[in-house]
Amino acid sequence: MGFSFGKFRVGKARTRFEEEALVHMDAIYGSALYLTRNERDAEDLTQETFLKAFRHFDKYEQGTNCRAWLFRIMTNTFLNKTRRPVREMSFLEEVDTHDRDSGASEHSAHLLDPEAGFLSRMFGDQVRQALESLPPDFRTAVVLADLQDFSYKEIADIMDCPVGTVMSRIFRGRRLLQKQLFDYAQQQGVITGSISIESQETKADGAISLSEYRQKKTASHGA
Amino acid sequence: MNCRDVQKFIYVYLDEEFDKRESLEFETHVAHCAGCRNLVRFEEHFRVRLRNHLRPTTAPDSLRQKICGALDKSQTISEPSRVAALPHRRLNYRSAAWLGGSLAAGLLFTTFGGWQQVANLPESGEGNVAILGAGIGGGFVSANDSFPIPIEQTTDTAITTHQGNPPLDVQGNEDTVQRYLSSKEFPLRPPLVETFETRLLGARVVQFGASPVILYTYDHGGRRISALQYMAPGSFPVDGKLFNHGQHQGYNLVSFGQGESTVTTLVSELPQKELQRLIPGPISR
Q: For the complex shown, is ipTM > 0.85?
């Protein structure tokens, strides 16, 4: 009565938490590093993710995808912070600027000929720097897809948005990365000229509509 | 499928999100289109190289230890046996002092399991801080669970304190505040767990007669939380007990127990759910 949680229950929950959740600490921290862009904030974000997860561990359905559940907590925590103007968070700086700029740059994203030497000049530091320059939503989608290998559906669940929006964020995120890396290569004099340049289309709301494509195909097959 | 579709859905294809038929349509077009073939080749290489560069990282041991420590603390707060890690005698002494002082000041009430607000409390000269009295006739924690205590019986004064936002005796994080409190012979822990989002700004000790109340001020995502920590009478373990929660005068309040007999009331403009999420450890109602 009133003291229904006791040592036993708490201890059991802790053991379960260690077995199911804490084993994903490397993955959470590794992603947090890309999202927050510095070690201190990445550690804080990782710690907050696990403390929140522990606090709500009773809501986690045992046997389901604990890794995705943790990433959902981390992503929400991170994106909620970036969408809020809190001065002391260093990684929030320039977010608004990125968001404003992203529209223009994604429409001018370049597709480069693989023979131009650009791909062979992709270095780790530049990739990290380019990734860290992406707006938070795109950065998160790319990290979840390319670092953590989540499916679009899983990313949609984690980021709490439609699959079409995930497609769009990955598309635009990768194209912005290419542009950034292309610029680095140009600055180094590695690239002498681009080969193929075409703008890409996305819907006005930022989502690539696979379902629209499928509907169109179904209609044409039916006709 | 045409060139435009290929450009638009190239990552859907490379990320293997197309179904079999769609993949086949995609590949059929690419097989007959040199431009799209170049594009696919480039994007495929780019994707592979990108993934190769995004290497997994190992979390530092210090972080691992920090998180395990914070989790231990969550448990500590809710596990009666581990609360003894605090200087037990001193705490009991303080408990008695709080209770005695409160009685002397006429601040406690015998309402079973209830709180009553003390109107027109004498100013201590250290700020307008509430004393939140707890019933001693059976105390907060009753065997028959007479909770939650109606919010209307809780204190307007806690809200006044929050509104008044009095200056802090000590500013700093948990370690700084805890050191300060120990130096003042209050071997107490700040009630909330400091996180990425929740930061302790400082604390203030307010004395009403012999009855101290510790006011902690937290910043949570740019919003202020006042946490008033005080002693429930008796030696009932109150760990993890949610006493009271609700809205009053446009503020959200929640009161919960920690350890043997420490009660904390949080006051903030934060939504009630968010406020309750800050309570460390499991909570029983």
A: no
